[in-house]
Write a structure and sequence with these properties.
This protein folds into 3 domains: 2-54; 93-181, PDZ domain (Pdz3 Domain); 185-400, 2-enoyl-CoA Hydratase, Chain A, domain 1, CATH 3.90.226.10. It is built from 10 helices and 22 strands. It has helices spanning 2-11, 23-49, 56-71, 80-90, 118-122, 143-150, 208-221, 239-247, 294-304, 357-361; strands spanning 76-78, 93-96, 99-104, 107-113, 129-133, 136-137, 157-163, 171-176, 178-181, 185-190, 195-200, 226-230, 255-261, 269-272, 283-287, 309-312, 320-326, 332-341, 374-377, 383-386, 394-395, 406-408. Strand 19 and strand 20 (383-386) form a beta hairpin. Helix 1 (2-11) runs antiparallel to helix 2 (23-49) and helix 8 packs parallel to helix 9 (294-304).
């Protein structure tokens, strides 16, 4: 059944009736049938001979992930629950209690309840250790396991017990899950001397460009005359939203990004700005090693047109574009279908050949962290490089932290992608 769920949608996709009986189609059907049979045979061997219990869902998921990661590090598979979380993140909302959680020393803690959510109204605090959810002990659980239990359909109950410093016995909270907004912009405010600051760190989702416009309008009412746009640790997201953010600062006709793929699957296209009256205030863009994909599209476009000063570390270096494919069993996958290039023609993808998925993500094997493979020019003739992310105009090295990242309870994609 699991094999059929994966193979059948592909088999019936796009075959024109006049081609149905061509030899090419016959060969393709034979190939697909052989793949399905080989997978089923391997699964049955494991079932009959493995010295232990078989978790078929886990085995199938590992098989699909292994296949996709053989192609590249950014094609990814999501089981049903992960796919739901992925879609919620793209919609900038999820259903839960409304809090960020973090893992420290093998325990999971409340880091910050969101204002107006069940967690905030119920009285949980920073530092509360989550010890029990719906009667199940969380001992030994990681943040993802806790997240999976806190999430659920809107309107359903969840009981959470926490250990609080200075309180002898665990405290019990009974929540009703609600729709919780998950905005891309976590905060913005005015600094000194008319400098505005916008922290866009949660990815490029369906509401990102509108959030950006609202934040800028508010800051302009407060007297903003220049802007710091913080894209550090922004893992990317929707290409369309990266285009709209770039459009705020670029003139009509200026190229934002070029995308190239297989013509029959992902037609080549250039995205250009369409703004007759862009913002002209001085602009600084902060990036680091966690700035990836859609955030690199924005940084690359602003740098190539000399529109903003890029400050920080070399960005992640992801120039691949994924398309989204829902599967009929409720799971889904993202598959690399193209490459993107900055306006000057840079492909900023880091080399991932000859090393494992984990070495690539942990940057083990990078050539000094920067892989400057091609030289291009900005509009004013400055030299910029491709092959290793967006190199900052002003480098500011930040020491790697030992603290594990903090996520909203809705979780965090392991992939870094532009869609």
């Amino acid at each position: 059944m699991l094999v059929a769920a994966l193979v059948i949608p592909v088999t019936f996709a796009g075959a024109h009736p006049a081609q149905r009986f061509s030899s090419q189609d016959d060969d393709e059907i034979v190939t697909r049938k052989k793949i399905a049979e080989d997978f089923a045979s391997a699964l049955l061997v494991a079932k009959d001979h493995y010295a232990g219990q078989i978790d078929y869902d886990r085995l199938t998921k590992g098989s699909i992930l292994g296949m996709l990661h053989t192609l590249d590090p950014h094609s990814n598979y999501f089981d049903r629950k992960e796919w739901e979380s992925f879609q919620n993140e793209q919609r900038s909302r999820y259903s839960g209690i409304g809090s960020t959680i973090g893992q420290r020393n093998n325990n999971v803690y409340i880091m910050s309840p969101f204002a107006g959510t069940p967690a905030h109204r119920g009285g949980v605090r920073y530092g509360d250790q989550i010890v029990n959810i719906n009667g199940e002990s969380t001992e030994g659980w990681n943040s993802q396991q806790v997240s999976n239990k806190l999430l659920g359909p809107e309107g359903t109950p969840v009981t959470v017990r926490v250990a609080r410093a200075g309180v002898k016995d665990p405290l019990e909270f009974k929540f009703i899950r609600e729709a919780v907004p998950l905005p891309s912009i976590t905060n913005y405010y005015m600094l000194a001397s008319g400098v505005g600051y916008i922290n866009l760190d949660r990815g490029f989702n369906t509401t990102t460009s509108e959030e950006m416009k609202e934040a800028m309008q508010d800051l302009q009412r407060q007297g903003m005359t220049s802007l710091i746009l913080d894209l550090r640790n922004n893992r990317g997201g929707l290409v369309d939203q990266a285009k709209k953010i770039s459009n705020i600062f670029l003139y009509r006709g200026q190229k934002i990004v070029s995308m190239r793929g297989r013509p029959s699957v992902f037609p080549n296209r250039d995205e250009v700005a369409f703004n007759n009256n862009p913002e002209e205030i001085p602009l600084v863009v902060l990036v680091n090693r966690g700035s990836a994909s859609a955030s690199e599209i924005v940084a690359g476009a602003l740098q190539d047109h000399d529109r903003g000063r890029i400050v920080g570390e070399n960005s992640f270096g992801k120039g691949l574009v994924q398309s989204v494919f829902p599967l009929r069993d409720g799971s889904g996958l993202t598959l690399t279908t193209g490459h993107f290039y900055t306006p000057s023609g840079r492909l900023i993808q880091r080399d991932y050949s000859g090393r494992s998925f984990y070495d690539y993500y942990l940057r083990r094997g990078d050539k000094g962290g920067d892989q400057h493979l091609e030289e291009k020019r900005t509009d004013t003739g400055r030299t910029v490089y491709g092959g290793g992310g967006i190199a900052p105009d002003v480098a500011v090295k930040v020491p790697a932290t030992e603290i594990e990242p903090v996520y909203a309870e809705s979780g965090c994609r392991s992939d870094i992608g532009a869609f």
